[in-house]
């Protein structure tokens, strides 16, 4: 199997969670009308004695021969990734389910100025960057348990389009 | 009173919360050694039936004659601001306390590629940007109550250094 890198859009990413970027719709007025706000995602981070936390990840770029060989999920929590600075992350995802369906895996580029929030239980690859190493803020759960990992019998090639 | 805009640093911001940027210290190994992570801040977002949420704010730039006339605090929750894209936010803050001490107010620039997390109860001005309008992701609590607002008897002038 081979997967090409897709452009992030609200519709395309909907099965996996929320995009963290300004929607096209009008927001709610804040600060006596000098600003607007949009509620993008409700987070679930404190199940099973978990603590909500902000972490910084520094992640390597995917090599040219990168293949998707492992996926993980957090069955009871959401997890958000926000690139900091100029880096672009890859969001390699499959819908939440008891068992991973490798055929359902998709790959999205998450460019600077945006981010993604993985819905509870969404399967995803460990964080990896596109082209060059990247830093990202991660809004997630810290605490015991809550991570399933599976190894793919047949690793999936990624088409980076170049 | 007058306050100049200060550069963000871990030490200077410590009385008000955490800086969201890569520390100088080594991180924890992740992804089989291809990355590092740093736990930057534990969040408190679900007191009093609150829900942890990611929101996007679009905020106006402070006008040249900007003065600090109002401050607010969330007595039972943290709140994080992460500029998205090229905007710079102002973090106008005073230490958590039952009563605001206007003399303790300080003003920090929060540039792209960083962010701040306000510790529980930290007094802060409603979000405002430096120079041009900015967008920011906000990790905060949504739900009933949890916001105190005070009006300053004598508004404070901000020295933008230009």
Describe what this molecule looks like in 3D.
- Two copies of one chain form a homodimer.
- The first copy, chain A, is mostly beta strands and 162 residues long.
- Chain A has one domain: Jelly Rolls, CATH 2.60.120.
- Helices cover 2% and strands 50% of the residues of chain A.
- In chain A, strands 1, 6, 8, 9, 11, 12 and 14 form a seven-stranded mixed sheet that branches.
- Chain A starts with a strand and ends with a strand.
- At the A-B interface, β4, β5, β7 and β13 of A face β4, β5, β7 and β13 of B.
Keywords:
homodimer; mainly beta; Jelly Rolls; seven-stranded mixed beta sheet; five-stranded antiparallel beta sheet; 1 helix; 50% strand; globular
- Give the mean pLDDT of chain A: 96
- The appropriate CATH architecture of chain A is Sandwich
Query: How many individual helices of chain A?
Result: 1
Order of helices and strands of chain A: EHEEEEEEEEEEEEE
Oligomer: homodimer
Tell me the span between the first and last alpha carbons of chain A. 18 Å
Task: Output the CATH class name of chain A.
Answer: Mainly Beta
Largest sheet of chain A: 7 strands, mixed
What best-fitting shape of chain A do the alpha-carbon axes yield?
A: globular
The helix fraction of chain A, in percent, is under 10%
> Which runs of chain A of at least 5 residues are low in confidence (pLDDT < 50)?
none
Cα-atom radius of gyration of chain A: 16 Å
Beta fraction of chain A = over 45%
Give the structural class of chain A: mainly beta
Per DSSP E runs of 2 or more residues, the count of β-strands of chain A stands at 14
- CATH fold title of chain A: Jelly Rolls
Could you say how many structural domains of chain A there are in total? 1
